[in-house]
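User: Teach me something about this protein's shape.
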Amino acid sequence: MKVLEEFKSFIARGNVMDMAVGIIMGAAFTAIVTSMVGDMIMPVVGMVTGGMDFSALYLNLSGQDYPSLAAAQEAGAATINYGVFLNAVINFLIVSFVVFILVKNVNRIKEIAAKKEAADAEKAPVTPPADILLLSEIRDLLKKQNKK
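Assistant: First, the predicted structure itself:
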């Protein structure tokens, strides 16, 4: 039973929950980036390269000729699919750049918030501790009695 309580404590920690949320968001974000690369960027790259589709690039190791990668794979031929690899590299570079931009902006927002907190802390009046206030009141009362 103690192990179950320790497990609950472990799961309830903020950093574990943050990590879980990050993984879920990362998976969802991957679908968006994959679509962006496949549906928006690669057609432009294909147009610039004369209609070349990177995902169709492959090296046939079987020694027979096939009209396409799909035909080679259907025949069970051994292929090195370097075009698919190029798409994965482009996908990685885009994801890395987007994450860089996100982290940069989050850090900027944190810095602005920290500066605002520091400015607010400077503006806030400093209240002395209760014992100092009490001693000040006693001093003032003693001064009044000595003047009489």
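Now, about its shape. The two ends are 73 Å apart (CA to CA). The mean pLDDT is 84. If you'd like, I can walk through any region in more detail.
User: That's plenty for now, thanks!
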